[in-house]
Predict the 3D structure of the following.
Amino acid sequence: MKIGLEIHVALPTKSKLFCGCSTEQVDTPNINICPICMGFPGSKPSLNEEAIILAKSIANILNCKIRDKISFVRKVYFYPDLPKSFQITQLQESIGYEGLIIIDKGKRINIRRIQIEEDPAKIIRSEEYSLLDFNRSGIPLVEIVTEPDITSEEELTSFIFTLKARLYYLGIDIDREIKADLNISLGKERVEVKNVTGTKNLLEAARYEIERQTELISRGIEPTKETRSYDEKERKTKASREKESDEEYGYIYEPDLPEYNIKNYSIRETVDPIEKAKELAEKHAYNPKIILEAIAFDRYALDLIERNEEKYNFNSLMQAIMEIKRFKIDNIDDLSLKMLLEEIEGGFQIDKDTISSIIKHEKVKHSDFSQEGIDNGIREFIEKNPDILRRYIKNKKLADYVAGEIIKRYKAKPKEVLKRTIEILNSMTGQK
Amino acid sequence: MSSYIEEFESKVKPKDYYDRLYDELVRLNPRLNAFNALIKPDKNGIPLSVKDNICVKGIEATASSKILKGYIPPFNATVVERVLKTKRFSIIGKTNMDEFGFGSFGINCEKPAKNPLDEERVAGGSSSGAAIATALLKYHVAIAESTGGSISAPAAFCGVVGFTPTYSVISRYGLIDYANSLDKIGFMARSADDIRVMLDITKGKDNRDSTSTDSKIVGLHHKKLVIIDELIDKVDEKIRSQFFEFVEKLKNLGYTVKNINLNEIDLSIPAYYLIAMAEASTNLAKFTGFKYGFKLNDFSKNYNEFFAEAREEFGTEAKRRVILGTFIRSASVKDKYYSKSLIIRKELIDKLSKVLKDAFLISPTMPIMPPKISEANSMSPVQNYATDILTIPPNLCGLPHISFPYSYSNGLPLSAQIVGSQFNDYGVISFVSEWEKNFEYKFKYNIGEI
């Protein structure tokens, strides 16, 4: 199996690639537009240099070779979303080439090329007609083209995860969903699934194609070279009406833009979350996967870890991080963190009330119940629910349920409560 | 000859000056087809005309194409902006041209332009209307544009001064593109001094045109003139002999003249047309009939049918260039034609730069006298393109050049073209200034005389 991807990522610049229009996502159509991104006769593109810095930075995190001199081309085709009937993009002199991402299990995925290009307008289709929103026209994109090095669904998942995590750390808004063309062949011929939006759909489209092509091959049918599209509702890929031919775009140099020497453009400093997770795991003898999961799309979590890894027990700190993520706390001060760690290390259950107390720097209320108090609580609960004893004899797991209720009620330490619950249940039912 | 602009500014204008000027042009225009639109000027400055492929905010710009009928640009071209900022000019109209600049005679459009000196003959193109307006009006300058000779050719045929700057010296923002790597906005006037005024006002870097430059333009007035034999060989016998008489006069004025051979110059026509058509076919792709200009209102069609039908509005020459240009760009022949042409252009720039280091290139501007409109209509495209042989080399190489009349024959002007090295724009202008000291231009019309 061979899978190659062409992934489009929107760059978080303030203004569009070739004009001053805002890139902000707005609901009102056709307000962030001007003669340039509408392709009015007489208008001309001026390159947004912020896009170069970002594209160069992406090329850098994908370990690409970066060209000192870049130029643009016109890719000509007729489509209603393309205001000039050509897209300004890059070809031979693209910003990055020959890159590499290492994904899970050390698998190497080569990057063929990274290029800067402009996004077309958005087509809003309905049964009777289509509408065009040019707010999106001219948004800067980078297209990342991989070699067909991905050979399984797991690798595809890992590749997308790795790519998105690195982009996230570069400050790329990954909520603005990526768009991709998926080239996938289990047989001899390449099948291209075009314009898949979003990671989830990309994985589903791949899964569907793998099944479809496997099934064909099992029946002795060779999958044919074709272009398909992904139907989100039916979760299927479908043959496109587009004719399959080597596309003829009639590329020429974009004569309105000079060759740019970008040698002196800066590259944004960034962190590789995968490397970072490995480093931390080695240092603290911890599971790297858990660290990566915590920090992959959460810069704040990484900041907290790095600020506190020397101060606290790393296991407890990681548990605290999980709680902070679970309760979506976006800013925790040092004292609150310290209080949270005390709770964790004390073996207490963390709930909403605990969090609200520690945020306000208020003492967390625990039931101050003595052993006797808790025992009474357990007995009281059983007396109110007499059925429990009969059921317990058949199913010892019921102790977990009873203990859970007591923990909730008394905010007591879970381990102890469970131990006492079992002891009491056993003694009341005469078991051992 | 001094500056008409300054002369005009020093004079007291009659109250109804601009109204009478407008009325006179309204009366003459149907005969000559100089203007696509006449505008009642605001009453303050010297009359200025703008070629119809250059955007003036709020005024229809069609580039003489039916497909742009109704296109009203919401912005000024930078060149227009810079000129208007001086408050010394009044726009009187948008001038006629070959559709999108595709032509050498001014007849590839709805209303063929006529030469005011002999109305049976062509005015030259593509900036036909700019040349006619300059030939008609005593006080006036024209903003024109040249891709392969569109300023020199009509200036030569109508007997006015036509200047095309070094590529990149004047911003192209607001120009409806023909071939972006070749397009240059320039001027026509009745004296070299007026051209200099226009260049002073409009030159220089513009952030809205990334190819514009801040390079200091210079004024080296060389005394050495170079004639390329391969070019002169292609000039009509009669014009050639008159041109050599002119060259003798220049020798008497202290110029030295040297003949050289430059075989590669013959490649300039194919190289030029291949690049120009390749770029033009991409520029024309945007005209699909639904955002501006000509609009189709039948939305029952699918997009392919819709835009194909809209593009029926293109004239014959525009269609030819779309088809040829698309072919030239196609993957199977691109290296053979387009890529090779880029190499030839570079080679020619290198060769000519060496020649022009301490000299000007001189030649007649056109190899023929202005043909009758009927004759021009019966020429094949290839014959037609061949008449650009003298204007294409400086245009292909982006070198500054200027056309001016040096003699008259049966009431028609004989014009020569001076080419300078890159950024020696003031040099070629000052050559003509010098020449004007010894020669008086003849104008049949002096509309707006005070």
